[in-house]
């Protein structure tokens, strides 16, 4: 069972690298830590996880389109990643 944890860690490092570090050059350690903190929040709340029943580790309700609603783009990590949600327009 030790190998399973290594493979999960390797996959996590590859995902962070391809989604974040390969696209932006951190200015210093504090900048990198801020980016990683926001990426972890994005990864656990907004990023789709197709292999999980709840679609995300934290879990979230499915967003349905209602009459008079539009798609709202939510930028993450300075706009490198985005999530989308239906939002009702103000009347």
Could you walk me through the main structural features you see in this protein, from its secondary elements to its overall organization?
The chain has 91 residues and is α+β, with helices and mostly antiparallel strands. It has one domain (2-88). 41% of the residues lie in helices and 18% in strands. The chain has helices at residues 2-21, 29-45; strands at 69-76, 81-88. It has a two-stranded antiparallel ribbon. The longest helix has 20 residues, at 2-21. The chain is flat. The model has no long low-confidence stretch (mean pLDDT 79).
Structural class: alpha+beta
The string of secondary-structure elements, in order, is HHEE
Mean pLDDT: 79
- Estimate the global geometry from the Cα principal axes: flat
CA(first)-CA(last) distance = 56 Å
Strand numbers in spatial order across the main sheet: 1-2
The stretches of 5 or more residues where confidence is low (pLDDT under 50) are none
- Rg value: 16 Å
Considering the chains and any ligands shown, give keywords for the structure:
91 residues, two-stranded antiparallel sheet, 41% helix
Fold topology:
Layout: H1 2-21, H2 29-45, E1 69-76, E2 81-88
Antiparallel strand pairs: 1-2
In short:
The protein is α+β, with helices and mostly antiparallel strands.
């Amino acid at each position: 069972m030790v190998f399973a944890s290594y493979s999960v860690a390797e996959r996590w490092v590859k995902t962070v690298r391809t989604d974040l570090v390969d696209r932006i050059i951190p200015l210093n350690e504090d900048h990198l830590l801020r980016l990683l903190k926001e990426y972890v929040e994005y990864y656990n709340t907004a990023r789709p996880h197709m292999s999980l029943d709840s679609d995300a580790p934290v879990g979230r309700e499915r967003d349905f389109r209602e009459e008079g609603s539009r798609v709202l783009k939510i930028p993450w990590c300075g706009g490198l990643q985005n999530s989308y949600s239906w939002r009702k327009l103000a009347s």
